Amino acid sequence: MAKLASGRVTEKSSQLLDEFNASLMFDKKLYAEDIEGSIAHASMLANQGILTSDELTQIIDGMAEIKVEIENEKFVFDISDEDIHMAIEKRLTEIIGDTGKKLHTARSRNDQVALDFRMYVQKNSKNLEALTLKLIDTLLDIASSHDETMLPGMTHLQHAQPINFGYHMLAYVAMFQRDVQRFSDSFKRNNFSPIGCAALAGTPHNIDREFTAQKLGFDAPTVNCLDTVSDRDFALEILFNIATLMTHISRLSEELVIWSSSEFKFIALSDAYSTSSSIMPQKKNPDVPELLRGKSGRVYGNLIALLTVLKGLPLAYNKDMQEDKEGVFDSVQTADISLRILNEALATMSVNSANMESACQVGHLSATDLADYLAKECDIPFRDAYKITGAIVVQAEKLGVDLSEMSLEELKVADSRIGEDVLEYLNLRNSMNARNSQGGTSSKSTKVQIAYFKEWLENYEK
Fold first, then answer.
1. What is residue 285's DSSP assignment?
2. Is 277 considered catalytic here?
3. DSSP string covering 197-210, please?
4. Exactly one of 6, 14, 277, 358 is catalytic; which is it?
5. 364 is catalytic
6. From 53, 156, 262, 437, the catalytic residue
7. Mean pLDDT, 10 residues at a time, over the chain (462 residues)?
């Protein structure tokens, strides 16, 4: 059978061109969107009197048969068809005859692929949004169980101040909340129908783009057809949103790797989400967070690749844009499985609270509290208080103790103005709970933050 879209080109294309030109082997992923979009388009044509009701029925029945064939792996994909759109249209014509040839009235593959791809992106934006919400829920459960479990808060990966583990988890909740909002905002911004724009300039046929937009669940049709067929901002947005999401996943994964090491032993990943060494039988490797950390690189690459493809393209459609899909498909699949497995790994991990609290005895975490005490209670200028505290820390190092373990007598050697009340400031739990300002790490403030995020999540899911 001759190609449906042969037109001006009369010679049979070479096998090499077919292989180079075709997108069928990857864009067949869009079969469901293509069928749904074609049925909506045919329904609009019938509503406008361009197709008869009998012809519409034939098309709908034929499309249903094709969908069954594809899902039952009975559909024959022929690379000479170039893409999923032509493959389905050819098969439809084989099933229902010349009526199948009428389906392409008032549309082009340019607006057809823009529609299919946009529908795919919109659907997966919602899916990734939902999976991120599940991850937030798991993190909130962990935070709620550990709003008093102390661990060292760090800067430069050095012990800094005592915080609680729940508070630490809430930092990731805040990151993933922004990811949810990005997916949601992108969905709203891109929920407009491209179909009916045809090649680039609209169509002389009496079509109703509002009809197809409503039937396919879009808010409205797009405004400018020239922009529409060349627009891949929606693809860039999901790639950027996934790249940012994977940045957050990678940062959390890095901490899971560190925390599960023998040097920390803050957490232990479930055996179900760990692997063994091929040679060292004692090993339990954190492969899940390591893979998650590594997969951030591939989604970054997909974003940069599409930006590079689009940066110099004149209006409107160009064949370069065939390179838009594989990276999106890959990033969507990567983000989907990453969110699922991270959620399971977190839900099944165990937390070693004793080791976390023991680690707070290293690094003089209440040093800032001592400087604040000297400034507040002894009326010493903060910069002078800072120097005095530094000298006391040096003395603690010589004594081989943590600052929080020094006696009043040892402290007063540095400055006689230090009173007995200083010991309350140096107590690590008091230090943590003293940071009760809005957004701070005290257990009280952490509980307020947990309540805020839980209320947000509950209202969001409604």
1. B
2. yes
3. -TTTT--SS---HH
4. 277
5. no
6. 156
7. 55 76 92 98 98 98 98 95 96 98 97 98 98 98 98 96 98 98 98 98 98 98 98 98 98 97 95 83 88 97 98 94 96 98 97 97 95 95 96 95 95 93 95 96 98 97 72
